[in-house]
Amino acid sequence: MLRDMGIRREASTLGDGELRALRAAFARAYGIRDERGYGYFAGLHGLPLPNECPHNRPLFLPWHRAYLYLFERALQDLEPGADLPWWDWTTARSHREGLPAAYRRDPGRINRNPLSTGPVTLSAADLERFRDEPINQGALSDGPAPWTLRDPDNPDELPRAATIRRALDAPTFGDFTSLVEGMHNSVHGWVGGAMTLISVAAYDPIFWTHHAMIDRVWYLWQIGPRGRPPPEHLLDQALTPFPMTVRDTLSLTRLGYGYAVDVAG
Amino acid sequence: MADFDATTVSTETMTRTATLRYAGGAAFTRADLVFLDVDHGHSSYEVRVFVNNPAAHAGTGRTEAEGYAGRFHVFGHGGCFGDVGHCDVPPPSTDPTDLRPAHQLTPLSTYLTVTAPLNHLLAGGAALETVTMLAITLPPRLADRAPTLDFFLFSSVDLRTYHTPETPS
């Protein structure tokens, strides 16, 4: 039976029930060690090897769309109504406050917000290799079962709406991908901590809402005047390790979710 | 085109400057600086680009008056986590039956659109002379950010201009 279309909402507009479902789904996923759990999905992006994500390649957008789709489905198996939100880092609010409130640490000594940090379920050997690199200091907390850290930059350094508009004006899929991936890179660097590194970025819950924004921008380009499918030779390429090709990612209706096109007020 | 090996390094400002002369020519509607074979194996980093300002440094304002032309960001892998040889990038395969994807650390190509700053130079009667690149690390800790000459490795940078005629509406 077809389920109702899921609507991904902007992270600052989530209602209490939506936020409760999302937090419950993440918290439950953290406790599952098999291929339904958080560690499995986060690990597909970097560590443990193999590193599957195709950055700096034309498959960047389709691969991450498949990635989010399968992760969101896994969350919804745990908690119906757990739709992935998108974080619009171009809004005045984001340029004033930075991270969406739903993803910040609880004030006070005890943090109970599962969206503010994620567990990093790497083997002792992988953790040792990761920590042996001095440039990775500050990405993860100490100890054998670390959690992700952040160290955000000045909010006004986040990408601006004008940059999105330039991307939406891109005449080809390759041009568009390159512009969007550049914006994407800058936000990874802006968040700091684990998000600055391909190897562990996906363990931070903000990763998914950042990528939902990227996915939404692709959707806006697809339905806009410049939008067109990826080049023919890409369409039947597999998006390893997912059971999907590029062609399978092109219709959000087929994937059962959608985005608000505009948010006013 | 300016090769990486032909760039001038300043250890004082931690910048790399390429000589890239362009005094204008055919009309263009877009101009890109294209960087080939950029390394992305280490920390993430940002590259700020200045035209005709070889003295630019980390404190230089990101303004047109200072020759600031824009910036781009590289998302780094954070090191090599495999066994010996895992991060050695093989040369591109010429075997048409080799369907394997490229190695994850295959250097990337990227570009920075510099239409407005180039037009600004040319409109003022100047020519493009130099492109100065300042790479700043984006490590996990904000306080650890610093200019670097180590991470931003590439094979060449060149300027490409394009002309797209207006489509009648």
Helix percentage range of chain B: under 10%
Distance between the termini of chain A: 36 Å
Overall residue-averaged pLDDT value of chain A: 95
Number of helices of chain A: 9
Estimate the global geometry of chain A from the Cα principal axes.
globular
Element-by-element helix/strand order of chain A: EHHHHHHHHHE
Q: Please, how many helices of chain B?
A: 1
Q: What Rg of chain A is obtained from the alpha carbons, in whole angstroms?
A: 18 Å
Low-confidence stretches of chain B: none
- Secondary-structure element series of chain B: EEEEEEEHEE
User: Which oligomeric form is depicted?
Assistant: heterodimer
Structure description:
Chain A is mostly helical and 265 residues long. Helices cover 40% and strands 2% of the residues of chain A. Chain A has 9 helices and 2 strands. Chain A has a two-stranded parallel ribbon. By secondary structure, chain B is mainly beta. A 5-stranded antiparallel sheet of chain B has the order 2-3-8-5-6. A 4-stranded antiparallel sheet of chain B has the order 1-9-4-7, covered by helices on one side. Chain B starts with a strand and ends in a 7-residue tail after the last strand. The mean pLDDT of chain B is 94. The chains are: A mainly alpha (265), B mainly beta (169). Chains A and B meet through helix 5 and helix 7 of A and strand 5, strand 6 and strand 7 of B.
Secondary structure topology:
The complex is a heterodimer of chains A (265) and B (169).
Chain A: E1 6-8, H1 16-30, H2 38-45, H3 60-78, H4 92-97, H5 124-132, H6 161-168, H7 173-191, H8 206-223, H9 252-255, E2 257-259
Parallel strand pairs in A: 1-2
Chain B: E1 2-3, E2 8-10, E3 15-22, E4 30-38, E5 44-51, E6 68-74, E7 108-113, H1 115-123, E8 128-138, E9 156-162
